[in-house]
Amino acid sequence: MKKLLILLSLLLIISCSIDSNENKIGIVIHGGAGTILKENMTPELENSYIIKLEEAVTAGYDILKNGGSSKDAVEQAIRVMEDSPLFNAGVGAVLTNDERVSLDASFMDGKNLNAGAIAGSSYIKNPISAAIAVMDKSPHVLLSSKGADDFAIEIGIDTVPNSYFITERRLNSLRRLKNRNSVSFEDTFIKDSKFGTVGSVAIDIHGNISAGTSTGGTTNKIWGRIGDVPIIGAGNYANNECCGISATGWGEHFIRNVVAYDIAAQMIYKNENLKDASKKSLDKVKATGGDGGVIGLDKNGNIAMEFNTAGMYRAHIDNEGNITIKIYKD
User: Fold this and answer.
1) pLDDT, tens only, 211-220
2) From the candidates 35, 197, 248, 309, which is the catalytic residue?
C-alpha cells in the first residue's frame, strides 16, 4: 500500500508538471511605436487599428491554444499585419527615395538559436515567411536585395510586383519629405512620426519561444539603408533560457545598442526581470538620441510592452485567453 501511495504521488506530481507546462502559452504583438496621439486619431481610424491588432494577436493565439508551435503563431500574427495597409510592413509600407518599397524581416527560434532574415526585398509578399524560410531552407542567416527575392522565387514563396505594396498615403508622405530633402518615419496620414515595424513574440505548450519582426523601414531612405529589423540581436532575438524580443523605433540606435540581445543578456547575466531589462535598454537608446519600443515574453510567460514614445500599437493574450489591446501611453 505504501509503495502504491508513493507511485500515485509521483504520478500526480508529473501530471501537474505537464499540465502547468501545457498551460504556459502566450503571445504579444506590436504594430510600431512613435508619436501616436489620440488627438491625431479619428474614432474610425482608432477602431480600425484595434480591430486589426485583435485579428493579428488572435490568429497567433488560436494556433497556440490548439497545440501549434510558437513559430507558426508568430508567422501568422505578423502576416495579418503585413497584409494590412495600416502598418509599415508588407502592403502599405513606406517608400524609398526612388518611390519603391524595400522590405526587411527577421525571425529567431529560441529553442536552438537558429535565425533567418531578409533585407531590401522588392517583391516578397510576406517577408516574415521568407525570413523563416531562410532559417529552415538555407545555410545562411541573412539574405539581401535581389538575392532574397531570387531565393523566395526559387523555393516558391509568393512574390508580387512592387506596385502591390504602394499606397497613396505613403506616396504622399514620401513626396512631402522629398520636397524638404529629409529622411523620416513621418506618417502624414495620422500626423505621426517614428511610425513603423510590426512584430510578435510567442511561447508554445513546449516552452519554445519565437520572435519575429517585419518592416518597410524609413520614408525617403537612400543608398540601400537597412535598419535594425533584420539584424539578429538588434531588432529581434529569442532564447528559451530567458526571453523573446521584437523591437520598433529608430533603427540606427537599436543597432548601436544591440537592444534585443541586451535585454536577454541582462536577464541571463544579471538576473533582471523582463520589464526592468526592457526599460534599461530603452534608456540606453534614449541616451544616444533614439526612441522606440520593445515587446517581450519570458520563459514563464510574463510579458513586457515598453516604449519611450507617446504610443505603441500593441496587444497581448495570456495563457488564460485574456486579451489586452492598447495604442496610447497609459
Assistant:
1) 999 999 988 8
2) 197
